[in-house]
Amino acid sequence: MITVRVPAKVNVQLGVGGLRADGFHDLANVFFAVALGDEVTASDSSEGITLSCSGPDAGVVPLDDSNLAARAARLLAAHHGIADPGVHLHIAKAIPVAGGMAGGSADGAAALVACDALWKLDTPFETLLELAAELGSDVPFALLGGVALGRGRGEILEPLAAEGTFHWVFAVADGGLSTPAVFRECDRLRDEAGTGSADSDVPTPDADPALLAALADGDAVALAAALTNDLQTAALSLRPALAATLRAGTEAGALGALVSGSGPTCAFLAKDADGAAAVAAALRASGTCRTAHATYGPVPGAAVA
Ligand code: ATP
Questions:
Q1: 226 within 8 A of 15, measured Cβ to Cβ
Q2: How many other CB atoms are found less than 10 A from the CB of residue 187?
Q3: Is CATH 3.30.230.10 the right assignment for the domain spanning 2-161?
Q4: pTM to 2 decimals?
Q5: 99 lines ligand 1 (CB under 6 A)
Q6: Is the CB of 64 under 6 A from ligand 1?
Q7: Contact partners, residue 237, CB within 8 Å, separation at least 6
Q8: Which of 26, 38, 107, 138 is the catalytic position?
Q9: In the chain, what's the furthest Cα-to-Cα distance?
Q10: CA–CA separation, 285 vs 256, rounded Å?
């Protein structure tokens, strides 16, 4: 039996370019791995690839072939020519589902590492990264962890320097948001504003030098000032109640606040661990979210526990 721990991500910068002909957007995506994460346990099975899930959101996690953990196990087996793979994967789910924290991608990365160890395959890390990119744009980062700049659809990764530990709070909403729906709303709002939404209309996004310097310096105040998410307006348009969540965390003393990825989870940067605990308590008491978790990062990517 092999248990793998895997982090969730928050995008400290999410720059969204225009809509490309292939239906994707060019991104300048600064991923940051946080300790709030899932655990995936792989054990031997003679019944093919089977799944179970525990945790507060377990009821909305698909346990069929569409689950990214099952798809990862199947992809790894196919890569090694294993015709009849057998594994039971149990997902202990702490990452909010459809929350903009790449929880499904995290489980896919964790399943790659867990099955690789269970089946004693010793797959090179570079190969695992390639398989991860086949599974989805956010999966390679869940393998890598730390802080990284993602380009293209987010899957071309460059590790970034980050000093020390940053303290975060995540406010979990009731219900999720569909990532494709949030991108569509972003395009719609750009068209409505008259700026256009095609890749010829929108400048190619790039990493913000002030944000990179704040990460490298371990400067939480500077990082808070540089947080940006080009999907935030679209997430707020689809879920206006998130404005009250962002306000509640800021009023409770957070240095900075933003919607995490495509939302609806909201992320707050705090001064230190005590500050994060205070912001989380205030958010839970505010009635503007289902719950709030204090956590920290950066942390490593998917690894055997
Ligand atoms: P991202 O930030 O990468 O866009 P997200 O965090 O918003 O993703 P996920 O939690 O990854 O969203 O879930 C999106 C959808 O993926 C879910 O609604 C679910 O149907 C599907 N899914 C597939 N595998 C999983 C998994 N292991 N855990 C959760 N959802 C999964």
A1: no
A2: 18
A3: yes
A4: 0.95
A5: yes
A6: no
A7: 185, 189
A8: 138
A9: 58
A10: 19
Which fold would CATH assign to domain 166-297?
Alpha-Beta Plaits (3.30.70)
Ligand 1, atom nearest to 66 Cα: 23
Indicate which atom in ligand 1 lies nearest the CA of residue 107: 27
Cβ proximity of 46 and 84 under 8 Å: no
- Three-state secondary structure call for residue 195: coil
- Where are the domain boundaries for CATH 3.30.70.890 in the chain? 166-297
150, 9 contact by CB (below 8 A)? no
Residues of the chain with CATH 3.30.230.10: 2-161
pLDDT in tens, 192-217: 999 899 999 999 999 999 999 999 99
Query: Is 271 designated active site?
Result: no
Helix intervals (H) in 136-272:
139-144, 179-193, 209-217, 220-226, 232-238, 242-251
- Alpha-carbon distance of 232 to 212, in angstroms, equals 20
The values of phi and psi at residue 22, to 5°, are -85, 5
**Nearest atom, ligand 1, residue 57 CA:** 29
Q: pLDDT (tens digit, 9 = 90+) per residue, 120-150?
A: 999 999 999 999 999 999 999 999 999 999 9
Helix locations, the chain, DSSP H: 68-79, 103-118, 125-135, 139-144, 179-193, 209-217, 220-226, 232-238, 242-251, 273-286
Is there a catalytic annotation at residue 116? no
